[in-house]
Structure formats: C-alpha cells, structure tokens
TrEMBL record:
PANTHER family to which the protein is assigned, alphabetical: ARSENITE METHYLTRANSFERASE (PTHR43675)
Protein keywords: Methyltransferase, S-adenosyl-L-methionine, Transferase
Superkingdom, taxonomy of origin: Bacteria
Protein name: Arsenite methyltransferase
Record-level Gene Ontology MF annotations: arsenite methyltransferase activity
E.C. number(s) listed in UniProt: 2.1.1.137
Length: 267
C-alpha cells in the first residue's frame, strides 16, 4: 500500500471506532464483539483505571503500554501526546502537570478529535487542547514540548524516520520522549505485512526492534533506553483469518510481537 492509502485506511478504521464508542462502553472491536474478518484493536491494551486523572469515556483500550507512568513528567511541563485518540493519556498527564502545565493531543482522525474535545469540555480543562494533524507533519512550532508521549501509534505511521524527526523538532533542548509501541523480533511473514486490517491493528506496520531503535538514534536522540518490554500473544483465531495452520506454525516459530516502552532525550 502507498503511504496515502495507509493513512486513509487507518483514519477510516479509527474513525469507525470513535463513532461506535459513542453508543458502546468500549471500542467497536473490543474483546468478544468482533465479527468475522475483523481485528480486535484492544488486544494489546493495559489497565489505566487506577491512574489519577483517569476518564473512562476517554479510554478506548487502543494502547499497548502505559507511557505516562515512566515519562518523568513534572508540574508545569508542556506535554504533547501523539495519536491522542479520545484523550485518555492527555487527561492523566493533565493531573501530572497541574494547572501551570499544558497538554496538546494530536490525532489525524476527525472523529477522535471530536470525541476528545467533548470529553475535555466535560472535564473543564483550559490547559488541554486537541489538534487535528499527522505525526509526520506535526501542527506544532519548534521547541515547544518538554515531553512527548505516544501509545501504540507510531507503528501506524508509514514514515517512522520522518515521525521521529518531527518529535525531536518539537521538543525543547533537554526535552525527552517516552513512547509505547509494537515492534517485531524475528521476521514477520510477507503475507501478514500486506493485510490492511492487521496494519490498522498495529501488527503489519511494526518494524523490528533493532530497526526501531536505530531510527531513534539516527534522529539524534541520546540516552535511549527501554523501560518495559512484553511479548504479545496474538490469538490463533485472529491470525487464521489470514493464513492456514502451516503458516501459523511458521509465524509462531519465526517472529514475536513485542510491546516496548522506549525513552530518549534530545541533547
């Protein structure tokens, strides 16, 4: 798929999730409600419910980690959340930065931005805003943020080098990022890399962990570290929608899908 077709497909999928969440307690494809041929986009999600500032309506279960926990966010900081969805991480960050800080959520899906703004109106925060835009071309001036976070979104971005180039551009000197994402250990079969549904589900768009860390280093970040790492067990019945039993065994033996939370500093 071309870069533009990938973005269109992802935008449509997550727009559908945002719309469906208005009438359901969770996303349109949460565990147990996926129909045939659909991907469970919540398969990687972790429990946010005990974090201070948690807003249930903003949690669509679409992440693969909890980057806010290890992001070293201080009172008064300016924080940007990439792929902010309905605002889940942004509202928790707002409790961390307090009234003197500022939070900017960026998402390329109009429906998600609309839902996030609706949630923010209920909270009454005047130092949280949501902007429509793409990660490869952020609608933010240079050197604005103390911290950039993101949760299971950069794997959806076609040009990851451009994305990390944008992250280092919008960070202040001595700023840092803390990002949860999906990477691959081993070799993901070509058959899976061509499945659009699995791209939107954060699988087909993932690169190897080695390549991911090299992209970060090449962007100019230092003091790079992984604070958490967890193997993700994709259900057999999901993968069997796109391959036979023989291919499934090959996948299980040749590749691991891993959730990592990565930290890096702008010097």
């Amino acid at each position: 798929m071309s870069s533009d077709s990938i973005k269109t497909m992802v935008r449509e999928k997550y727009g559908t999730i945002a719309k469906a969440s208005e009438t359901k307690k969770s996303s349109c494809c949460s565990s147990g409600c996926c129909g045939s041929g659909e991907v469970d986009y919540t398969v990687f999600s972790q429990d946010y419910s005990k974090l201070d500032g948690y807003v249930p309506e903003a949690d669509l279960g679409l992440g693969c980690g909890i980057p806010v926990e290890s992001a070293k966010i201080k009172k008064g900081a300016t924080v940007i959340d990439l792929g902010s969805g309905a605002g889940n991480d942004c509202f928790i960050v707002r409790r961390m930065v307090g009234e003197t800080g500022y939070v900017i959520g960026i998402d390329m899906t109009e429906e998600m931005i609309g839902k996030a703004k609706k949630n923010n109106a209920k909270m009454g925060y005047d130092n949280v805003e949501f902007r429509l835009g793409e990660i490869e071309k952020l609608p933010v001036d240079d050197a604005v943020a103390d911290v950039v976070i993101s949760n299971c979104v950069l794997n959806l971005v076609p040009d990851k080098r451009k994305a990390f180039g944008e992250i280092i551009r919008v960070l202040k000197k001595d700023g840092h990022f803390n990002i949860s994402d999906i990477v691959i250990e081993g070799e993901l079969p070509a058959k899976l890399r061509t499945v659009a549904e699995l791209y939107a589900g954060c699988i087909s768009g993932a690169v190897s962990k080695k390549e991911y860390l090299q992209i970060i280093k090449d962007a100019g970040f230092g003091n790079i570290s992984i604070s958490s790492e967890k193997n993700i067990d994709i259900p057999d019945d999901l993968l069997l929608q796109y391959m036979n039993e023989k291919d499934l065994k090959e996948v299980r033996s040749s590749a691991k899908i891993v959730s990592i939370t990565v930290y890096g500093e702008k010097s």
